[in-house]
Amino acid sequence: MANWRKLFFTLWLNPLFCRLFDRLNPPKNFGQRGERMAERHLLRLGYFIVGRNYHGHHGEIDLIAVDGKTVVFVEVKARMTSIAGHAAEAVDDEKELKISKTAAEYVAFHGLRNAHKRFDVVAIDLDAPKNPLRHFINAFESAVDD
Predict the structure, then answer these.
(1) Which domain holds residue 23?
(2) What is the rounded CA–CA span in Å between residue 107 and residue 31?
(3) Considering only CA atoms, which of 53, 58, 57 is closest in space to residue 75?
């Protein structure tokens, strides 16, 4: 890896740099802050982010990443409190269908029909006592046939 790339990823994963970056480029809303937290988490795990906020005819996919040889479609849900339920509970059957259809559009457009695909959910509950971020790998199966 080139030295500048190593430096970039070292800085990007550094919490102090993340706070500085958020101050210089503040998220417009709480959802964007959650997506940034999820993105940094995925980068720490070695994923490569290839898309953010992909809009298709059926909906939006928050993050699209590559994990090894697998294309990962990531839904990020963030909650300040669990009064209305935990973040992970917000991904219901209807949301899974929208994400599946949008992912099928993405796969078709980019010629990735034969690629391995996976659907993950990153749930962020800020009122959680220990770790507010939970990553559900292979959270659900595609609701549509490719």
Answers:
(1) 3-136
(2) 25
(3) 53
